[in-house]
């Protein structure tokens, strides 16, 4: 009978990333060591750094917060960790997941900052959807969340945000950008540290961790997390790409890592155009234009512009260094959109 890859015990699972059989204790140890290997290989953290972990209450960020807390102690990274949670104002969804965030905060004993769209922007996502309808709402949510996470990090004195995007998310993003011919975004989404132009940087310690292994880890560790999909998520184009990827993965499990690595191998010649980086005249957030993406969206909302005009107004930046410029089209736009900050449609993280 087969034994665990690392000890004589009977295996309980097959590790998704390596296809090795493993017992639960060896799997848990393997997972943590694999994340440690990613962190050391990609050099995403520096000693003494303050790091804000974006926690939504979902499985990925819940596992991320636990793993980083463990590794920070085990390997003495010397990081000061904070939890930052953004309340988008989606009744029946985010209010429920925030309960899980509180439980995790009490387990981990890390400082928690919760910021809401209502306080930051004057609108909840429920109010925005009531105003603009079911299409394009991921555009608003993505731009606002990205900026809100930066603002949460700033409040903790952190210049780095760690998110729970995993290898499956990154592979989907690489494929989506490739299918859309957006090679500049493909390269941006494949870098180890993004958004470093003087602002707050973003890192993904799970970029080489398989989604299934994250789920196994959460399950075997009995972590508290909320597993319901966002009620407004149309899951259009990313859903298609995800299904294709899952089909290929059944034949060749290594495909996820191979796509992630392929994305990293793409080198795009630097644009001749100078990057313009300034502060938004309204909110002081880093932007490539007078008004940052969030303020442009907000001004359209506040004056009652049509959804089409609001979203169109965010597509004008030719050379964008606006760190909120992760999106330009909406998710509900039938798959043609540049997507949002959430995993369902984003093509930039
Ligand atoms: N409301 C939020 N507050 C704080 N961080 C968030 C929030 N939403 C998303 N994030 C961050 O962005 C990452 C990707 O989020 P997304 O919702 O797209 O994917 P997910 O795979 O469902 O992640 P999770 O399981 O952590 O919710 C999360 O892992 C988390 O780090």
Unreliable parts: 317-341
The run of helices and strands is EEHEHEHEHHHEHHEEHHHEEHH
What is the topology, as strand order, of the major beta sheet? 5-4-3-6-8-7
Main sheet, how many strands, which sense, barrel? Answer: 6 strands, mixed
Please name the CATH architecture: 3-Layer(aba) Sandwich
Bound molecules: adenosine-5'-triphosphate
And the CATH topology? Answer: Rossmann fold
Number of domains: 1
Structural category: alpha/beta
CATH class term: Alpha Beta
DSSP strand content: 5-15%
Give the C-alpha Rg.
Answer: 20 Å
Q: Work out the number of β strands.
A: 10
Q: How does this model look, in words?
A:
By secondary structure, the protein is α/β, with parallel strands linked by helices. The chain has one domain (27-275): 3-Layer(aba) Sandwich (Rossmann fold). The chain has helices at 24-42, 59-74, 94-108, 117-121, 125-132, 137-155, 167-179, 183-189, 211-220, 237-251, 255-265, 293-303, 307-313, and strands at residues 13-14, 21-22, 50-54, 80-87, 112-116, 160-162, 193-194, 201-203, 278-279, 286-287. The chain has a 6-stranded mixed beta sheet, sandwiched between helices. Strands 1-2 form a two-stranded antiparallel sheet. Strands 9-10 form a two-stranded antiparallel sheet. Helix 1 crosses helix 9 (211-220), helix 7 runs antiparallel to helix 8 and helix 7 (167-179) packs across helix 10 (237-251). The radius of gyration is 20 Å and the shape is globular. Adenosine-5'-triphosphate (ATP) binds next to helix 2, strand 4 and helix 6.
């Amino acid at each position: 009978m087969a034994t665990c890859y690392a000890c004589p015990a009977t295996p309980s699972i097959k590790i998704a990333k390596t296809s090795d059989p493993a017992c639960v204790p060896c799997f848990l140890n393997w997972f943590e060591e694999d994340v440690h290997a990613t962190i050391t290989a990609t050099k995403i953290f520096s000693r003494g750094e303050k790091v804000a972990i974006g926690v939504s209450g979902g499985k990925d960020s819940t596992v991320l917060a636990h793993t980083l807390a463990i590794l920070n102690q085990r390997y003495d990274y010397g990081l000061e960790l904070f939890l930052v949670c953004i309340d988008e104002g989606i009744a029946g969804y985010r209010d429920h997941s925030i309960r899980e965030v509180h439980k995790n905060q009490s387990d981990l004993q890390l400082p928690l900052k919760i910021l809401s769209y209502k306080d930051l922007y004057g609108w909840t996502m429920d109010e925005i959807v009531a105003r603009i309808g079911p299409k394009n709402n991921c555009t608003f949510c993505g731009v606002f969340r990205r900026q809100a996470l930066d603002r949460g990090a700033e409040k903790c004195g952190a210049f780095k945000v760690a998110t729970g995007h995993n290898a499956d998310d990154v592979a989907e993003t690489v494929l989506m950008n490739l299918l859309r011919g957006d090679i500049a975004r493909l390269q941006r989404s494949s870098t180890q540290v993004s958004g470093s132009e003087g602002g707050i940087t973003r890192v993904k310690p799970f970029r080489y961790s398989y989604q299934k292994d994250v789920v196994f880890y959460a399950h075997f560790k009995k972590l508290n997390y909320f597993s319901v999909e966002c009620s407004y998520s149309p899951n259009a184009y990313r859903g298609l790409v995800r299904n294709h990827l899952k089909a290929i993965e059944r034949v060749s499990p290594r495909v996820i890592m191979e796509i992630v690595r392929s994305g990293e191998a793409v080198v795009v010649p630097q644009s001749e155009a100078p990057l313009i980086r300034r502060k938004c005249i309204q909110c002081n957030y880093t932007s490539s234009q007078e008004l940052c993406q969030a303020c442009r969206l907000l001004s359209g909302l506040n004056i009652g512009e049509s959804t089409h005009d609001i979203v169109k107004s965010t597509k004008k930046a030719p050379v964008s260094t606006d760190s909120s410029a992760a999106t330009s089209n909406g998710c509900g736009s039938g798959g043609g959109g540049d997507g949002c900050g959430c995993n369902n449609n984003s093509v930039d993280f």
